[in-house]
Each structure stands twice: as C-alpha cells, then as structure tokens.
Specification:
Layout lengths: L1 H14 L21 E2 L16 H14 L2 E14 L2 E14 L2 E12 L2 E11 L3 E6 L2 E6 L2 H8 L2 H6 L16 E4 L2 H15 L1 H4 L6 E13 L2 E13 L6 E14 L21
Antiparallel strand pairs: 1-11, 2-3, 2-11, 3-4, 4-5, 5-6, 6-7, 8-9, 9-10, 10-11
Length: 279
C-alpha cells in the first residue's frame, strides 16, 4: 500500500507542477498583479496592435505575470498514462488550484486505473509553507516540506514555458490567442526530463541510464497580454529492460484570476494527519 501511494503521489506531483509557481514578492517584478487581473474578462479580442507580434516576448511577459503573482486560481485537467516496469496505470483529474502567498491548495476528483481496477476518488492537498497535507482514498497523510523543497520537488510548468528557447518561435505567427509551439527532443529533454527523473527515481532506480522526452508541444492562449490557458503534452521514457518506464502526459490549465484575493482553505483536521513514512 505504501509503495502504491508513493507511485501515485509522484504522478500527482508531476502533474500538478502548476501549483509550484514562484510567487516572487519583489514588487518591482510583480507588475500587473497588484491590482488583480481577471482572465475571464476582456477576452473577446486578441492582442492589441497592428504590427507583427513578437511571440517570444509576449509569452515571456504573460508567463512572468504568473511566476511573480502571489495569488491565483486555475482549473486544471490532467491525464497521465504510465507503463512502469511492465505495470500499466493511468490517472485523470479535474482539479481547482489556488494560491495565496505561501498557502497552496488543490482539490477535485481523480480517477485511477491501475492493477486491473478503476476507482474514482476525491483528491486534495494543502501546503502551508511547512507541511504538505494530502487526502487520497479517504486517507490523510502529511510530509514536512519547506516552500523551497516543495518547488524543487514539483518543478513548475509555468517556469518551463518561460524558459522556452527563442528559436522555437521562429516561423510561428499569429497574435498568441491560439499558439502551438512544438519542440525538438533536446529541448523537451531539457525542460521536462530532469523533473520526471527526479520524481521517479524511487520507482525505476537511481541509476537512470537513459531519459528520453519526445512528442512534446505547448499550446497557449494569450489575450490582452494575459495568459488565459495553456496545455502541455509530452511522452517520457526512462530506464531500460524490466525497469523501463513510459509516461504519456497532458496538462491543460485555465486561469480564472491572477493577482486577485484568493481564499485557500486548509483540509479539516490536517494537523493530526500521520506522516507518510508511517504508512
């Protein structure tokens, strides 16, 4: 049971990397987030201006609004299919992510198809800056974790988008309202491979002789300079032989608000949860 929970938690952390956004409190960087920006308003038009849009700069600026915001709310749809050491499992989830300063929550429903059985469950986690509390299959547990450790463990999907090389934008056109950015294997490996390898080392072993990330692309919608939604897709293969693991991953995120006041509610009774090591 403990190993199964560990595998699922690794999968969930990987999929919910959105919630590890920076939250930089440097006011000089947090432009546009102090007043709050609703991504549900003013989206009827594309990006303003008649000149050719510098898509690279547009994506950078829109992503930085998320990275520097101290609060946000987003809907997330997740899908992951995994073949881990010849064991197949898949996870889909419909979630709501919220952040207010160092408090982060994720709530929703998750469906897991593993070991010949399919089960739907409510899923939630709450991070308060010191512990990550998780409820899954009506079982609650906690792990001590600083914000820095949480961000390092989960990575950040938004940071990946902000780090997209300028060369990927060559030949792309449009106003950014429906931008599809395919990436080569080397770029995909650079952006996603290390995160997955780090999260899954307990599953396939520390000696990862090969980590290959392929079929990767990012689809974004930026309107009026605001990142409204994005979708990340890729396939990752690691290990070899009996220890080979293959993941097919998709995360679609829609931002409801950026910079507005958000209430992050703790999980009831979470302070009394046992440590995960006790399972």
């Amino acid at each position: 049971m403990k190993r199964f929970l560990a595998i699922l938690l690794a999968m969930i952390l990987m999929m919910t990397a959105l919630t590890a956004c920076g939250g930089d409190k440097d006011e000089s960087k947090d432009k546009g987030s102090d007043k709050g920006t609703s991504t549900t308003a003013g989206n009827e038009g594309g990006n303003e201006g008649g000149d050719k849009v510098d898509l690279y700069t547009l994506v950078k600026n829109a992503t930085n609004q998320i990275l520097t915001a101290t609060s946000y709310e987003a809907n997330i749809d997740l899908t992951m299919a995994a073949d881990i050491m010849n064991t197949k499992m898949s996870t889909t989830a419909d979630l709501v992510a919220k952040r207010s300063d160092n408090k982060i929550s994720l709530t929703g429903k998750m469906t897991v198809d593993a070991f010949g059985a399919q089960e739907e469950t409510d899923y939630s986690y709450y991070f308060d800056g010191s512990y990550m509390y998780t409820v899954m299959y009506e079982q609650g547990f906690k792990m001590p974790m600083t914000l820095e450790e949480f961000e390092e463990e989960a990575g950040s999907a938004n940071e990946h988008i902000a780090e997209l090389p300028k060369a990927l934008f060559e030949g792309l056109s449009g106003d950014g309202s429906n931008l599809v950015i395919p990436m080569d294997e080397a770029t995909a490996e650079q952006l996603f491979g290390d995160d997955i390898a780090a999260l899954c080392s307990d599953i396939v072993g520390d000696d990862l002789t090969q980590v290959t990330t392929k079929d990767a692309k990012v689809t974004l919608s930026i309107k009026n300079g605001v990142l409204v939604s994005y979708k990340t897709e890729y396939v990752c293969e690691m290990g070899s032989g009996d220890e080979k693991a293959v993941y097919t991953f998709s995360q679609a995120s829609e931002f409801i608000s950026i910079g507005n006041a958000v209430t992050v509610t703790p999980i009831e009774g979470c302070e009394n949860f046992p440590l995960m090591d006790e399972y």
